């Protein structure tokens, strides 16, 4: 397999927002497992932004990893946002009925999150 096609990612954290830029193939394998483990090591995340605009392929392993990351985020009371998915990515989410499970945002919406002055978690008192 071409190494340049393997999943590559870069994680940047700003306060309690983590932005992950993904590139390549989100397919079952070592690179995908390493990605999931790296995400699960993040601490104090309120919003996890996954920029999937450069993802070239997505298989069942990639979908499963996205669901595991989503479950991890829910356990941490964090939100997951998929940013600028390619057309094929959206089609796969639709075909698997996962469109309603993931919050899909444009790059503009993601930037507004990052520019938010109040990056602290919000609590409600009942």
Kindly describe this structure.
There is one protein chain. The chain is an alpha/beta fold. It has one domain: STAS domain (Transcription Regulator spoIIAA), CATH 3.30.750.24. It is built from four helices and five strands. The protein has a five-stranded mixed β-sheet. It is globular. It starts with 7 loop residues before the first strand and ends in a 12-residue tail after the last helix. The C terminus is likely disordered.
Task: Detail the topology: elements first, then pairings.
Elements: E1 8-14, E2 17-26, H1 30-40, E3 47-58, H2 60-75, E4 79-83, H3 87-95, E5 103-105, H4 107-114
Parallel strand pairs: 2-3, 3-4, 4-5
Antiparallel strand pairs: 1-2
Helix pairs in contact: 1-2
